[in-house]
């Protein structure tokens, strides 16, 4: 089953990393059908303008509705008869993008991404996409900071989604023992050598329990590390409203 992804941007070159590594391999293997589109191809004035000044005043520029409407209509109408993509619009004003949302998006057959720049896209484009094109529109944010545009967010979202698709990651077990899959951060990991000389006369040792062969003791140590690490770095996951009911985050307390 191939997942289709369309990305519309004024900087299509920003999406070049999607040719690389696991995502590039997934595309070559036919697991992902990823198409990048240049928004300027849908701007028809002499200067191919995609932005203008905001009504009501204020800083910066706003993306014009017409190029976006044409681009989204072209993408939405390019699939099988009756098929429609789910439209994902990255922006700092969106709902938080989480591992749960990555799982939800990974279950869709077709996603389209609209990368805004400047102060954002004319609000009527969202209405048009929903009402005239029949798209489910989801505005999503990576976190509480501001990026210049949606392109880097799309790189992150596509990577988070694509790695959940069957066949993209060789070892599917590595997907279950991960941060954010059960509400706790991951335990620290170590590899050889057991004693590492990081500077002359300075050795740093792997915790002895990990060399003990006592699988029960190792599991308890790792769980304790996860709790301590989550409390130190992400206390919101332990008592925030984000913890899923019945997750081991709440169950462990
Ligand atoms: Cl998804 N887009 C933009 N432009 N800025 C962001 C973001 C997304 N998430 C956090 N900041």
From TrEMBL:
What EC class is this?
Answer: transferase
| Binding, S-adenosyl-L-methionine | 116, 142-147
The record's subcellular location field reads: Cytoplasm
| Source domain of life | Bacteria
Catalysed reaction equations from the record: guanosine(37) in tRNA + S-adenosyl-L-methionine = N(1)-methylguanosine(37) in tRNA + S-adenosyl-L-homocysteine + H(+)
Keyword set includes Cytoplasm: yes
Per the UniProt record, which EC number(s) apply here?
Answer: 2.1.1.228
The UniProt keywords, alphabetically, are:
Cytoplasm, Methyltransferase, S-adenosyl-L-methionine, Transferase, tRNA processing
This chain's function reads: Specifically methylates guanosine-37 in various tRNAs.
Subunit info? Homodimer.
Give the family from UniProt: Belongs to the RNA methyltransferase TrmD family.
> What protein name does the entry list?
tRNA (guanine-N(1)-)-methyltransferase
- Species name: Pedococcus ginsenosidimutans
